[in-house]
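As described in the Methods, two query proteins were run sequentially through the folding procedure within a single session, without resetting any intermediate state between them. The first query and its resulting structure tokens are shown here.
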Amino acid sequence: MSQAVSDVDTLRRYIGGVLGRANHHARNVNEIALALVGAIIWRKDDATEIKVMTRAGEMTNVLWVSIGGKRYAFSYNHDAGAIEMKEGTLKGSVLASFSNATSVTDLKAVFERL
């Protein structure tokens, strides 16, 4: 299931959960996740909703957003130790990968190209 993130309080709860899990299991993305959320908000298409996956009523680490009329999925890849941006769905092609080693300049450049 998915849940729309249509207000700041829901977004705050979502990113709080992501950061809490990252601080515990994935410290290599706990900083870039904040910048990534900012980039997603900056570039998301107007009149579209950010959606997050839910499991057992709880928001998970999966997010979908439309940018430039295309849908992108963001999820944490445990093997790569990075947040991946995929085309369309969770099974789509990996377009970019983000970790704390990713500079904000590089993050911005990825989103400017969308």
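Immediately afterward, the second query was submitted; its sequence and tokens are:
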Amino acid sequence: MRHIAPLIVAALMLAACGTKKAAVSEPTTAQQQSQTDASGLTQLDYMRRVYDNAVYAQNIVSNIDFSINTGKKDISVSGSLKMRKDDVIRIQLTAFGLMEVGRLEFTKDYVMIVDRIHKEYVKADYNKVSFLQRNGLNFYSMQALFWNTLFLPGTDKVTDDLLRRFNVGKKASSQVPVTLQQDHMTYEWLTDAATARIVQTNVTYSDGKSGDTRLTCKYDKFKALGTKMYPNTITLNGQTKATKQAHNVTITIDMDGATTDSDWEPRTTLSGKYKEVSAEEVLKKITNM
């Protein structure tokens, strides 16, 4: 169970990536047509290149090695990642490569946290889980992080018209920054200038009172997945000063060759031996171990 705690903390930090719908200043079509990058592409053309890098696969599955560092602990565990587009993200943790000890399952409709050791679980609508509600967690925002693609907070997809809301910055070294400002949230995607591929996502929440919460998501070891390239290493670093004690958690997820396997059940079914508890109960128990 000690291995689960850092992942839970990181999951809470991932919640900072979602936000409720809000007004976003949208560049005019004329602005999009007049602003160009170093290669002569308009901002809209460049954004299309970025968005077109998204994989076509409906399923992404892989065994995973986790390297988790909390500043006080450095832990390596095995596990698996199973994702079905617009449906589910499932992370399973396995002790000694034999026994599953915990599971996180995010769907469009609910979040489930399963404690296999104590036979307890949480399954609730996002709006009924206080820590998700406070941070405005959005399933599609989290999905975009794991699928290495763009997202627009409060929406379930990015259309061609919505691409006009993003701002393309000037090329610096070999990267082109893409940014979006919304309420207290600042989103930045660093893209490779040659391929327009997203190599890093930065999300910052700042309200000037409780301190900043930051998430950095770095992508590496791109390999072919169908006709597109997909990162087989994802490194998540979450930092927050919004709690009584500052937290800094880094998780490196190394995939053992991502595949498009679709032969798996998208929903977890638990036996009658499991007891349903509140999110606060299970999180308190997990993080105190």
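Confidence is low (pLDDT under 50) at residues 1-10, 12-34. We note this only descriptively and draw no conclusion about the first query from it.
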